[in-house]
Task: structure prediction
Amino acid sequence: MITVGVIGYGYWGPNIVRNFAELPDARIAWVTDLRPERLAQVRARYSSTNVGTDHNDIITDPSVDAVVIATPVRTHFELGMAALRAGKHVWMEKPLAATSEEAARLLDEADRRGLALMVDHTFVFTPAVQKMRDLTRGGELGDIQYYDSVRINLGLFQPDFNVLWDLAPHDLTIMDFVLSQTLGTRARWVSAIGTSHYGRHENLAYVTVGFDEGLLAHVHVNWVAPVKTRRTIIAGDKKMIVWDDTSPVEPVKVYESSVDVEHIDKESAYALNVQYRSGDVHSPKLDGKEALTTMAQTFAAACLDGAPSPSDASVGVRIVRMLDAAQKSLDQHGARIEL
Amino acid sequence: MITVGVIGYGYWGPNIVRNFAELPDARIAWVTDLRPERLAQVRARYSSTNVGTDHNDIITDPSVDAVVIATPVRTHFELGMAALRAGKHVWMEKPLAATSEEAARLLDEADRRGLALMVDHTFVFTPAVQKMRDLTRGGELGDIQYYDSVRINLGLFQPDFNVLWDLAPHDLTIMDFVLSQTLGTRARWVSAIGTSHYGRHENLAYVTVGFDEGLLAHVHVNWVAPVKTRRTIIAGDKKMIVWDDTSPVEPVKVYESSVDVEHIDKESAYALNVQYRSGDVHSPKLDGKEALTTMAQTFAAACLDGAPSPSDASVGVRIVRMLDAAQKSLDQHGARIEL
Amino acid sequence: MITVGVIGYGYWGPNIVRNFAELPDARIAWVTDLRPERLAQVRARYSSTNVGTDHNDIITDPSVDAVVIATPVRTHFELGMAALRAGKHVWMEKPLAATSEEAARLLDEADRRGLALMVDHTFVFTPAVQKMRDLTRGGELGDIQYYDSVRINLGLFQPDFNVLWDLAPHDLTIMDFVLSQTLGTRARWVSAIGTSHYGRHENLAYVTVGFDEGLLAHVHVNWVAPVKTRRTIIAGDKKMIVWDDTSPVEPVKVYESSVDVEHIDKESAYALNVQYRSGDVHSPKLDGKEALTTMAQTFAAACLDGAPSPSDASVGVRIVRMLDAAQKSLDQHGARIEL
Amino acid sequence: MITVGVIGYGYWGPNIVRNFAELPDARIAWVTDLRPERLAQVRARYSSTNVGTDHNDIITDPSVDAVVIATPVRTHFELGMAALRAGKHVWMEKPLAATSEEAARLLDEADRRGLALMVDHTFVFTPAVQKMRDLTRGGELGDIQYYDSVRINLGLFQPDFNVLWDLAPHDLTIMDFVLSQTLGTRARWVSAIGTSHYGRHENLAYVTVGFDEGLLAHVHVNWVAPVKTRRTIIAGDKKMIVWDDTSPVEPVKVYESSVDVEHIDKESAYALNVQYRSGDVHSPKLDGKEALTTMAQTFAAACLDGAPSPSDASVGVRIVRMLDAAQKSLDQHGARIEL
Result:
């Protein structure tokens, strides 16, 4: 059993609280938020939970084992360090921190103290992403050639960061999970081009990530698109996956389609007799389990037993490094930034 | 009435021949091709048309007014120059030539001789693209913010060029027609990132084009994608278009969706109070006319009366310049190339 | 302000309770259910609400103004009569009663006592159905020709009734609202064909309803279909609506499509020169308001001021009469039953 | 090698002629049509084919082995009998004849003379329908429970028959092929309800067919629908097929979805513990072969070797009997007509 305190009860906080409240291994002791109307909601739903406006009440409470930090990214470092120094395990909203350096220091602190530090990369716990990981890991797709994702909609502009920091973490995390953690393929460079139509922050960006062995990943993130689109292609040389995360039916489809090359002429580097093969399409039934429930269980296990997690702080650091590099590239008009 | 000779009867040639054959203002006098089995097909369908393997028969025939050149791109310059020098009007398959320099010389030759030189950018004659041009021209969309296109499928690998030269001309031409010719907005730079999984030629590329005033265009072209996708967004600050060219119904949709900004803080360059508005969706009925018929009529009028065309050689030169720049950027790992 | 007691806290009850709890004009005083675990849920969420297993506690409580009856249909008559006789307004789950006779007696009782008796035909309060009613009422569609609906999925088999009584009330109610209440067109006869693959109750049925002036309605309801489908066509002789209630985008589309008849030959009754016209498609933006909120407000107004409702008991009686007739037709192999 | 004469070169005739012209085993000797402009088209495309306005030229030509009759249905009987009596094999446009009696007499005549008489039920030669037949025949679907088809669009009104005779033959033929020919299940009764909005002929009809053992089939045919829909469900108790014939991708999908019944209580005839199971979805790759090519080959084999065909005259007779019964039911307001 872990006792949890939650700092921040905004858009995502209620989902986290609900999941821990329903977990047999956890108990929500505290929720703090600066807004009284948010605390009133907590009180109405969870009468036995302490509420307040001062997060120090959580950090200094010796009965609290773990702290959930669901506040704006600019506060992650300070709150996270305080919680870790108080000996608490930490669940951090994504991204882990506002800079690579801060992220690395949080990781160090947690490692040194033997505490769990997990980042809320919810997507890696979704049945769809786990299915894609299974397909990749099992070799069914063959060699992975590219990852292409479109993650666009008419979206809420965030006051303190741009669309890159808002939406790209999802794809970077999925790539890390499906490609790097599964295949050992490492991201080597990043480039990004974007534009800002309404003030300082980019609301549209194209991010390219180069992995080992020519594997290319590309992500289109956009807050000003008329139709919500969440479409990801993971292409292997044997089969290809298309994941449409907005589709109410058959979100993951596996295509038995590929390119057959009879041989490549060594001298000219020409591919000769390239043929394509279009085959059956298969849509696996996905487990209906809520991703956040799986993540809460994983976090509880990490706190209690030190069990590993696919969204631990080392992943969080890698993601922030890629975001930092992408931002640098954005600022340099698309220059390639080595990782 | 124009008398037409056609050099090359491959994949696209039969469509061109059929359209000219059905045009009251035109007559097909000749078709040449190196392959006897292709000529047999011409003979079976058009018994009064001369066939042969030597294109010089066409170029030297004084009764021929215009020559259609539907051969591989590497032959465009030589055949085009020969035809123009023989005083023939020319219809050239896209792209106009293999290099910017060759394209410019063809344009000069045609201009000096007062001959029509038109490039077969069929898309600008489609009802969908013409409707989008009308919507852009009429100001209904507001200021144009970006153009985003995905043009991918499991495609035939071309032996002598890459996916950039195969598919990107379509989008570059549509941009030129809808944005540059209509709004006077000029393309300023190009960058491109791509990869080649099967031999020398890139089969996947992401091309970004920067226009005046921050207008950004981005195109994903790909021969190794499991699902044929042809989806273009033209986003204005009042309305946005989504064109799905694979959809059997309602291919063009106009979204009354936009972002409202109360004001932008001058000091901080922050957009304050950004709101989004999601409204009705309207799908205009499109004229069912075949694009190639419209293009053949336009070409006949250009030959007979010097009537203007939205796909004349000056457009063709601009497109080849963009392709050249994109290729250069591909070769330089995505470096921005000024136009 | 009305004080509400709720009998039955099963699948739908929590939604009703939540909506009344959030309504300024209402207060939930009581919830009863036979299952202790359901009552525990009420207690956890609504600490100030009385809970119990005996619905008589609600009916005899003089502070209660209105009773919500969300129990199986076989109990509707007895519970409804008890509540009305105790002077309470009643919100009844659909259908109003298990037979036409019971439904009529409930209506009489409510009328005689001047009490509100409303049936939970939630669909008539949805933005989509209200938009379709507006389009029909405004004459924009022209004369209505037919209503066709497919309402099928892999569905929960109900233990005490068949698919007709489970799903067809939705369509019968929408027809009543959009056609009968709006245009004054009356349903005249019903026929139904169905089959039962798993025991006594039909799990598949086709229901046809004949209205005045040749207007035909047809509904396919089915618990054994692989894909959830909720598609309704309302066809007028000027425009037609297609409503896809499973679509996450543009659920209501209005087609400017129609058939043009030059004239009909009087002698032969032949239509001569029938042409069809296919035009623009328009998808109106729908209000995002939850239907149950609108219905709770309408019910409160009916209790407090006697305000009218499009789902009052007279509608409820008409729907049960049609269900009775359809069941009779099912039992007689599709014989036409006059209403 | 068979020598073929074609009577009627209207909407469908050119496709038939093209397929026979490209078949190594066949030669088109004659095409007749009453309209000179249609004959001009034949001449332009097939210079060695005789053309004329008198079909007797074909029937009396001793070199002709087989006659294709692609004329309005009211002429089928007379032309078919004349051709058979002249010793010609016959390919008849669907439906075989205007009445069951005429259809039966044509069948008798062909049988007595040992001539092939095939009906152009093209659908049974499509890769989609053949795949569905394979799935049904192999038992993969389990016991078939129902067939449901929606075949609607904004359609050309036919001058001399109604929507039942125009569109329903497609579904009746597919049912005959997939269910009756494959499983031995026989159609036992038909009922139909329809309406006519524009003159004498029904433009909308719902047809129900009862087969052995409770298997029910239902077809919605309609000339006044805003969206072209061609969706067929074939539901078995193990798997179900959905065939969307308008979809450019994955037209046939096989759902591993079903209803599990633990047991049915014998006394009450209640199904107890009905559960549903929703599983993977599989879309088989379909052969791209043109159906008419397969049918022309089958016809040639039937003429030359007496090879069997799934669309022979006995099938044609069954289809016309069902159409006759459905028409009778339409005229009797939906009364069930035994076959």
The mean pLDDT of chain B is 93. The first helix of chain B runs from residue 13 to 21. The interface with chain C takes residues 250, 256, 278-285 of chain B (CB under 8 Å).
